[in-house]
Amino acid sequence: MTFLTIGHRGVMGVEPENTLRSFVRAEHEGMDVIELDLHLSKDGALVVMHDADVDRTTDGKGPISDFTLAELRELDAGQGERIPVFEEVVDAVKAPLQAEIKDTAAARALAGVLDRRDLLDRVDILSFHDEALAEIRTLLPTARTALVASRYGLDVIDRAHAVSAGMLVLNVRRLTLELVERAHAADLRVIGWTVNTPDHLKLVRGLRLDGATTDFPEIRRAARFTA
Questions:
Q1: Which stretch of DSSP H or E encloses residue 115?
Q2: pLDDT mean over 97-110
Q3: What pLDDT is attached to residue 224?
Q4: 73-82 contact pairs (CB < 8 A, 24+)
Q5: Parallel, antiparallel or unpaired: strands 211-214 and 4-7
Q6: pLDDT for position 223
Q7: Would you say the pTM of this structure is higher than 0.85?
Q8: Torsion angle, CA of 129/131/134/139, rounded to 10 degrees?
Q9: How much is the average pLDDT of 186-213?
């Protein structure tokens, strides 16, 4: 498997995060994979946003779960962009996707979309939450899943195996060669986040990671020359 560069919420370093504008830019810049985040609206739509509330990334205030999709559509998500739903991203770009879910309710909603639209070959499902990945495994036994972690130790390998995840997506600042080697020996791929500088890129290359999640298009270009 070649080294992957993964666009973080599109390319959030240069475009409004988790918007169609950001995802289309990520694809245009040649990102191998595009990562996004999912929450459920009040009426059950799979909306694309990182935080549990709308305060940081829109001109609104309050939890996403307090808004219907129609109400969320009225908010400005940056440069006039509107909050997209997952299905719109699927239609807007052709690149493979990483969809991060926050809970079991989102897991069930996403599983339904992936099954209906035959997207299992195109979408990896990520989560910090073991129970959400376990729910996906129950609903979609053949889905590709990844455990995400920020603060972790070697036990993260056992956690991934417990929920049948095939990949770890880990905070690059805590990564060690020992962990990467053990993960690879356990047949787990390892992605580092967030890789936004040449030094970060050298680190993930030195650790022999399988890929890097980045906010910036230039990391994609730099990665081509650091094999």
A1: helix 104-116
A2: 97
A3: 75
A4: 77/16, 77/18, 77/19, 77/49, 78/15, 78/16, 78/17, 78/19, 78/21, 79/15, 79/16, 79/19, 79/21, 81/16, 81/19, 81/20, 81/21, 81/22, 82/19
A5: parallel
A6: 84
A7: yes
A8: -110
A9: 96
CA-based end-to-end distance of the chain: 13
pLDDT at 208 over 60: yes
CA–CA distance, 133 with 110 (Å, rounded to integer):
11
Q: What percent of the chain has pLDDT over 70?
A: 99
Residue of 44, 28, 132, 58 lying closest to 87 (CA atoms): 44
Q: How many CB atoms lie within 10 A of CB 37?
A: 21
Query: Which two three-digit tokens encode residue 110?
Result: 């996403």
| Residues catalogued as catalytic | 8, 50
Q: How many CB atoms lie within 10 A of CB 183?
A: 22
Distance CA 15, CA 9 (A): 9
- Cα–Cα distance measured from residue 202 to residue 195, given in angstroms and rounded to the nearest whole number: 10
Residue with tokens 């918007």: 19
Residue 226 pLDDT > 70: no
Flag whether pLDDT at 1 surpasses 60: no
Amino acid letter, 76? D
Residue with tokens 């709308």: 54
Does the pLDDT value for residue 42 go beyond 80?
A: yes
